[in-house]
Amino acid sequence: MKMARPGASPQSTAPRLLLLAALLTVPWGLFTALHTAPIPPNTPPELDRFLSDVAAVAPPRARLLVAGGLPALAFYRATYRLYPRTVVGYLVRPYTDVDGWVGVPDTWAAAARYARAAGVRYVALWESSVVPPPARVRLRKDGGVLVEMSR
Amino acid sequence: MKSRPSASVAEGIGLAWALGMAYLTAAYFTCYLCGLSVALCTVIAVVVACVLGGATLAWGRLPRQTLARPRPRAASYPALFTRTAEHCSWDRQGTRLRVPCRPALPAGMPAVPGRVVPPSPVPLNNPGYIGLVALGCTILPVAVMAWMAVRSPLAGWDGWSVWAFKARAFADGGPTLAYFRDPITLHTHPDYPLNLPIAESLLFHLPDSASFPLVTLLGPACFAALLCLVFAGLARVYGPETAAIGVAILGGMPIFLYNAPGAGADVPLCLYTGGAAVYLLAWWTQGRRRDAVLAGLLAGGAAWTKKEGLAVAAITMLVFTGYELLRRQGWRKEAIAGVLLPLCAAAAIPLPWLLFAHVAQPLPRDFGPVTPATLLRHLDRLPRVALVMGRQMLTFSNWGPFWPLVGLALAVRGRHLPAPGRGLAVLLAAQLGLYVGVFEFSNWQPYVAHAQGTLDRLLLQATPLACLTLIACAHQTKAAARRAPVEMGRRRRVTMARRAAS
């Protein structure tokens, strides 16, 4: 490539340098564009189906505790899908921790205790080993269970 | 003589999208604060956006003589394309395409008194091919983004958990004021501005099968609008070939491919920060006040789109004001108005949100109080975050060799940059400094993980500015640097002569 000599016209090299920059950057961009796949969905369809069922049962102004396998996903997704219902997460650490601030209750007693403290009416557990009292179960579907704490 | 307005068409499209969205959502939010219903908010917002958008476009339209006159070479993407078709011809047998080799072309854009016209780009032998290649390099990524958005709507985590959540709340009548102070929904960032959610909320009135892809397409649309603004700005300042190449560099950046179809707010923010930088460059090089005001309006759009947008807008307007302070010889009324008008424009769009945030004090999640004590306590974070940023810049899968090229260009040619190029470099340095410094105030533990998860998106917001800086460096030679003070002096003389004449 012809380089600029001192005193040479500035028009002699400038865009050629830019062209060189483009030749270095653009092919990688095109390669990436041709090889990029759509963002895979980060939510299992069963979770979405379960939350739709929960939305059909819980009234629009209800307050729910939602927890389950993939704790952050279950909580975030429930917040998004169940609006305008208020969704409470099972917080086990300060929310400013990057990881592990949302958890899953180990036992029904722990879940019930947390639910009473948070003043929720429903507890939705998804992909959880917790066994709630059968009499209170309102819905059991798609790997999830919805429990009503009080009527 | 009929003008060839392709560059201004691109500019019109970019501005209409960027400012139209900001006007629409700001008006909607103001109506929402007044307690109006969704339908009334929508109607008033659409009317306000149409009136303000039309007025801005009409006022900001380039004077006819500054539009590209019919020139011996193409003046824009469409024109480059057309010219290729016009000038190529088939040989007699109709088997081979003949491409005429055009002669070297006269330099520069049409001269207008009082304007500093930077050196024109090198006349390339075949701008038609370059235009075509650049057009392809730009259209392909945007098309891929659109395809990704339609195939996988609302798939990005932040896209649904933060922005679409708020959008659905607004479509449902708007969140209650308690939402902004409720720690239960802290993960949805109640302290973030609402430009994107309100724009999305208008689409959420459609059935899910239509609204989800349309909401996701907002990112690619913002990216296309950004490319339009960058192309139009660069075509005016450096010429169409440079604009085409610059847009191809920006359009081919892989990080945009991953982010734009994710329905996040980073690409919309990039539209506003990048647009503001383009218009600042135009103001610095061509001295038309409309460009400064448009830079202010777009900076205001940034402040209304994302929380860090407020800081970037503040930095942009600070650099603008500093540049004016250094450049001005006296403080007449006109000069003061020239500084105040863009500053007022920057404050206008986010004003309803800023007032609301001042009164309602939405809960913050990510960052602690910005105080000198916090800064001093966390000074030891700086080198580690800078290291993370350096590593991110070298992540080839996200950026290719873009950031090393920008660094190299600044190292080799930074000293010789004229004032506008230096302005861009200062703005870029300030923006990158902000992105390193902001983690001094991070609430997250460990903060390095916060930086690692965030810096790619923050750097994305600075990419158009970095691209402009790279182009300014590529256009700079020692000879031009020696000429820069002469041009600046000539500009002052012309301005003084104008004042004397008036």
- What's the mean pLDDT score of chain B? 82
Strand order of the largest sheet of chain A: 2-1-3-5-4
Pair of chains with the largest interface and how many residues each contributes: A-B, 50 and 72 residues
Please tally the helical runs of chain A, counting DSSP H or I stretches of 4 or more residues.
Answer: 4
The best one-word shape of chain A is: elongated
Structural class by helix and strand composition of chain A: alpha/beta
Q: H/E element string of chain B?
A: HHHEEHHHHHHHHHHHHHHHHHH
| N-end to C-end Cα span of chain A | 80 Å
Biggest sheet of chain A: strands, sense, closure?
5 strands, mixed
Could you describe the largest sheet of chain B, including whether it forms a barrel?
2 strands, antiparallel
Number of helices of chain B: 21
Q: Count up the domains of chain A.
A: 2
Low-confidence stretches of chain A: 1-13
Q: What is the CA-based Rg of chain A, rounded?
A: 27 Å
Q: Give the strand line-up of the largest sheet of chain B.
A: 1-2
> How many strand elements of chain A?
5
Number of domains of chain B: 2
Query: What is the gyration radius of chain B calculated from CA atoms?
Result: 23 Å
Helix content of chain A: 25-40%
Distance between the termini of chain B: 29 Å
Topology order of chain A in helix (H) and strand (E) letters: HHEHEHEEE
Short description:
The complex is a heterodimer of chains A (about 150) and B (about 500). By secondary structure, chain A is an alpha/beta fold.
Element layout with pairings:
The complex is a heterodimer of chains A (151) and B (502).
Chain A: H1 14-35, H2 45-57, E1 63-68, H3 71-81, E2 86-89, H4 108-118, E3 122-126, E4 137-141, E5 144-148
Parallel strand pairs in A: 1-2, 1-3
Antiparallel strand pairs in A: 3-5, 4-5
Helix pairs in contact in A: 2-3
Chain B: H1 6-33, H2 38-59, H3 77-87, E1 89-90, E2 97-98, H4 127-151, H5 157-171, H6 195-203, H7 208-237, H8 240-251, H9 254-259, H10 266-286, H11 289-303, H12 307-327, H13 333-348, H14 351-360, H15 372-377, H16 381-393, H17 396-399, H18 402-413, H19 419-437, H20 447-474, H21 478-501
Antiparallel strand pairs in B: 1-2
Helix pairs in contact in B: 1-2, 1-6, 1-7, 3-4, 4-7, 4-8, 5-6, 7-8, 7-10, 8-20, 10-11, 10-12, 10-19, 10-20, 11-12, 11-13, 12-13, 12-19, 16-20, 18-20, 19-20
